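Protein Record: Sequence and Backbone Structure Tokens
======================================================

Structure line: whole-number tokens from a learned vocabulary of local backbone shapes, matched to residues.

Purpose: to set a sequence beside its fold so the mapping can be learned.

___
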Amino acid sequence: MVRHAMALCCVLVLSACGGDPMRDVPRLQDVELAEGQGQSDALAGSGAAAPAPDPAAKPQGGLMGFLRGRADAARSGGAAPKPGDPDYRQVSFGTALPYGEIARTCDAPEGKLGARVDGWPKGGRGYTLYDTAPGGTGLRTFYLTGFSDGCPRQFSAALVLFAAPSDYEVIRYGPAGADLPVSTTDTAYEAVKNRVCRVSRGQPCGRRMSALEKDTVFLSVYERFGDNAAWKTILLHDGAVAATDIKG
């Protein structure tokens, strides 16, 4: 926890039902047909650079993407991301994503995600992080499970750290927080915190922090193991990606 808190401090300081019932269904003319979806080799090994994304592994948009999302949700019992959500895109297992992108991998076989390296909450069931090249320091694929739709999320990174909301609040609501810019994940956290903790905007969660931390956490995703001029932040809440942004 101390290591994660210190990492979060560095990150923050450096950044000093009506209407048309068919409105969410894409138009048929928006459907784009693909001949097939290939797989590229997963990133692995120390120092490996991320290859260009596989053109066959593009987002599943249009009517087929809409129906696929509904099918995923029906199978898992949870809600799938909607078009426009940061993790709406779906790719085939084995696809290598460029740094900064996140996607669902609903066809990932069990037991093939890599080594379990971390999870949240500590000692409980929730989000689990898997590393395809544990011990490496180069850019490679990570998988994250624990989402309502049952699909792992994947992204490329050299280093990934969970950061507790309580650690985040030490900086955000402390003296140093007054000079920090407000990002997309900061705004999303305010909405989540206000709903769960029932406190005003700009105020710490308080006595309901333990309830908030059961299913809410920040994920800091770094492109390099050493110095990073910028990094990706992912806010997770209630089995979903609440928001993402790039800080730096």
Observations:
- The two ends are 23 Å apart (CA to CA).
- Strands lie at 103-104, 115-120, 127-131, 140-145, 153-157, 159-163, 216-222, 231-237, 240-247.
- The chain has one domain: 2-12+42-247.
